[in-house]
Every structure is written in C-alpha cells, then in structure tokens.
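Hi everyone,

Forwarding the result from last night's run.
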Amino acid sequence: TRSTSSERRRRRMESSIHIAMATGRGWRCASCRSRRGIQAWVVQASETQRTTREGTRGRQQRNKEKRDSEGKMLLVPGPSRSRRGARTVKRSGPGRVGSREETGMEPEEEGKWEAFLRRSCWSMLKRKNFEGILKLCVALGGAEGSTLRVLPASTILKDAARLASPPSLALQLLDQFPEHASRKHHTQLLRRSLAEGLDFSETELIFRHCLEAYDSGLEDTKREEQRPDDVVFAEFISACERAGREEEGLRAFADCVRLGKRRNPATSPLPHQGHGPCSTLVCNAVLSLLHANPETCESFFDNFVRQGLRPDCETMNTMMRSALKRGNPQRCEVLYDDLRDLGIEPTMSTFSLLVESYGAQGKHVRAQHVVNQMQSLSLKPTHEVWLSVLSVTAKRGDPHLTQRMWVRIRRSLAACGETPTLEMAKIVMRSALVPGEGHLVLETLKDLEEAGHKPDHESRCLAVRACAFLNTNGKATGEDLGRAAGQVALMGDEAPDARAVLALLSMALDAGEPDKFTEILGLARDAGLSQDDEISALLARHALALGDLPGAWDVYESHWYRWTGRDGRQVFEALLEEAVTREEFSRAFAVARHMRSLGHKPSERLASSLDDALVEYRLSHPDLCLLVEKDLWGGQGSGGKGGGGGDGRVLRVHHGTTREVRFQVLSALNSLRRDPEVTELRLDLGSSLDCQVVVSLLESDLGLDVETAEGGRQVVVKV
C-alpha cells in the first residue's frame, strides 16, 4: 500500500525532532549528542491525520490551520551573550533538564516541552525501545528529577516487566520510578524467568531486588504495595527447584516467614526451621522443592498438616511423586484414597501418577483399568495420562503389546481431533529394538511423519539403531546398512549419537564391509566414543575380519570384562571358535570361563566342537600333555570345586545334560599338568546316568583305566 503525503510528512518531522539537554557549554541534542550554538530550538510537533472525509474547502482550511500550528517556534532560552539581563539558568548537573525553575521556561513553553516528552516516550514504548526510555529518564535527572512525573510511569513499568530484555533493564526502570513500582512487576519478571528458562542468577537478582525495594524505607502505603507476597516466594522457590538450589529455596522460605506471611503463627515451629507454615501456595512450592528427598518431604508434609494446612490436589500430586521417587508405590494408592476422602477433584496428573504407581508394582492390568475408569466417567485422558500408560506397557518387554496400545492411543486421540506426541512415539520405538522387530520402529516413524510431526534427532538415531534389528538372527545385511545410512543423511548437519554409531559399526562388520567400518570410525570420534572402552569389542571383530588374530587377542586381554552386550557375545564366540580351530585349549577354556562370568552362554555348536576337539586331541596325545598356561583346577571352567592333595584329586561333577557332563570332565582332564605326584582323579557324580556317560567317555573314547565305587556314584581314573 502507498503511504499518504501526511504520513510521509509525519515521519520526516519525527526524524527531525531533537531533545534539548542543558549542559555547561550550551544546549546539546540527547539523540545525536551534537552541540548547537544558537539562541533557540525549533521543535516541530505532529498531529494525527484525521480519517473523516470532508469537502475540499474544509480540508484546505484544516490544512492551513495545521500548517500555522506546526510553524510556531518553541523558544528554549540558552546562555546567549547578546541577551542582556537574561535569567541565569540553574543546572543541577550536566546532561539534565529540570523543571521551569531550572530551565527558565515560561509556563506555556514548559507545557509544550512536557507534551513533547510524553509523545517521545509513547513513541519509544510503541517500538519497545526500553533502553531509549532508560536513557531519557537518566537525561531528565533520574529518580530525583521532577520532570519524570510527566512520563507514563505505570505503562512503562507494566510493559517493561512483560517485554524488556534482559530483565535487568526492567529492574533499572523500576529504580527510576520507585513510587510506581510494586510487587506485581517483580512477580511478572519471575514468571518470565521461569517461562524463558533464564539463568538462575537472573532470577535471584529479581528476587533480591524485590526484597531490597521493600526494605528501602518507603512510605507505609507504598511499602505495603511493595511487600513480597506468597506468589513472589512461590515463584522463586519453583525457580530454585528447577536449578537444583535446595538451600536457596529453604532460605527464601525462611524469608517468607520472617516477613510475617504465616498462616497460623500460634502453632508450634517446624523442625530445623523454627518457623510456622505459610499459605498453601508456598507450602506446595516447598514440597515440590524437596520431593527429590522423600524423607525430608514427608516430614515437612506431616508438620504442615498438623499445623493447619489443608492440602489441595497439587499437594497430593507432589507427595505421590515423592513416594514414587522413594520406591514406595503403595503410598501413592493411600494418598489417592485420602484425596478422594477429602473431596478433592483429581487432575490428569493425579491419574498419571496413579498409573505409574501401578506399573511400578507390576499391576499392568490395573494401570490400564485406570484409563477405562476415566472413560466410563466421561473423562478424556490427556497426553500425559496416555504417556504414562504407554511407558508402563513398554516396561513389560513385549513389543507387540506395546504396538497394540499405541494403536489404541492413536484411535482415542483421533476421535478428539488430536495426534500423539513425539515422546509417545519414542517410547514405542525403544520397545521395538529387539531382533526381528526393527520394522516396527520404521513404521512408527512413518506414522509420525504422516501425523504432521517432524522427527527430531533422537528419533532419527532410534531409526538408525532399528536397522540392526530387521532380521531375526540379529545379523545385518548390506541393504540394512544402506537404510541406516539413509537415516543418517536425513539428519543433515547433526551427527548420530553414540549408540547409533555403535549400531552402524556393528552393521558394517555383519555386512562384511571393513572399509565402511573404517569410515564410520570418524563418526565415533565425533560422538565422543573412546576406542579403548566403548568400541573395543567392535575393534576386535574388525581385527578378526582382517585376519589379524594377534591384534584381536591383544584387545581381548585388555577389555574382555567390558563386553556385556550383543557385540561382546559375538566377539567371544568368534575367539572361542578360533581357539578351538587352532587347538589352543587353554585360551578356549579361558574364553568360555569369561563368557559365563559375564552372563553369556556358549552356543551348542561351539560346545560340541570343543568337546570333539578335546577327544581328538586326547586320542592323538595319550600322555595328556595339553598346552596349559594356567592351572584352572577348581575354577568355573571345571564345573566345580577341586580338592585333595598328595597323589590324588577329587572333582564334583554337577548334574546336567550329556554334553555338560562331558564338558566338565574334559575340562578337569585339561587342567591337569604333568605332575608326578598326581596318580589318580576321583570324580563324584550326581547320578548313575552321569556315571554311565563318564565311563563311556573315559574308557571308550579316551582309553583310560576306570574304576567305579560307592554304588556307581564315583569314578576313579588312573593317570
């Protein structure tokens, strides 16, 4: 749209306005700081263009009157040498413009000057130029200047509390207008600091400024307006909770009581505080501050109730949250019953906490029954309740059950015209990170995009990890690696997180592409992974893929105790297979023992191959001279505790399958060294069936001399 001539004229006039400032060497402009050695200043005033249509003659007459009013000169006397007998200008300081007594203005000129200041101030308020308003206040003499009374102080402080950035600028404006400042401005600033997530130092500065303004010695009426109320203390205590400053929050609670904000001063004091309780608002803030320390929170709650506090729904929600933190979910049910007995209407947060308490107790059916009960009462569960239900369902470890709950949630929210949140989708995606179920993660991500949500960095990383679980055998293919690379490309400039990088490295090894493994190592450094700890198992697998067996054994000996995951199990099995193939039985038994200590169990194929390799080695080496570096007698690899001394040893063989019994006996034989003092080995068996298995192994397969004793429960082997 084209601007009218009046608007263009008004902008030109506003740009030519200068604010006169009295200085020791003459008049100076407050905006451009230039000095003018002239007799007077011409201040051009502008008026708002009327929008009503009139005849041509009326408009011409009005424009003539407007030009006459705009052409008037506002004379501001200056220290001219040619004006003899002129009034001496009294100045209170450089850069300040005072009242008529200070500037020597006539009443008419002073009124026009004040009108100009008001217009300038409103113009800066419209542009949200609070820094310019502060400079104007300082130029007019600050809080001691009498000219500040012409400015709209209430509007300035109200808008500054809502919009000024940083909040310290609003505090400076409050100092310029102390008579118009009140606690509502500090309350607004505290709420802004919480909503905008400002640093705790800014919030503490606002709170301390409020206390100092109250203690500054104002008149009784103004002092009462500046008196911090419970809202101020509650907002600051909430800020302390968010910042983890428990001591500052309790100190603010003590200041609240010190200022007389007591609900029942005649009651007994609180323990360790020496003060009575405040209003429900402050008590809720204090309990929320202490909910991470359940015992202290429970103590404060009991004292508050004994001293007359009537809890509300927020109070009970905080106590339920504290009970869950302490690991006492049964307490949540008691608190919920008390809430209903008091006639308090529960909120959605209450139902959400109740669902979490049932989930912590393993009562998953009752957790879902809470939602059914809400729907029967015509209460629509919100995202918060559905999120708790979905989290409880996902903890059961069944991805299909979680998927069915996800479908139910989507249908329920669609009936209300809503869509699931991104956090709900992440819970479903995490629950499907099991072999053979990775496609559920990709489907959930697709549903999320169709619902209008933009996947964030974490959801993309979960999709990368899901590509490693597309097959039931847990082995990734080159196609799976390509899908994962596509998800990484969708991240843009962001790098995958540590778990996603580990999944990429594992998929590169499964797909048999060591070159891509080397390329992905660069992402591992960007993700902060240490090659000595986090990816040591993958480095061992990479060395085996390249045929570097000594390098793989070096990594194994340094970091085997860290290999508790799926990649570690694969490395153990690969090294065990290599040791059996090379007939390095000492290392084979060491790997098997380390696997069992970390919760891994050798596969049936590897156990059978080790069993057969030991039998073949015994047949080819009848002297039992096995290459053993360490005496494993009595360890976990031998299957029991050994004992005895002199010329014999005793081993208790635990009952198990045929393969397990044979494995224990062969391990015991392998642990024997060439010792002239050991002449026989006694095996205590758990059953007669185990005795038949052992005798068949020793006599038929190994060709040893065997004697049975104690009813077929003990076998003596002559070495």
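The beta strands are 20-23, 26-29, 35-36, 642-643, 648-652, 680-684, 705-709, 714-718.

Cheers,
N.
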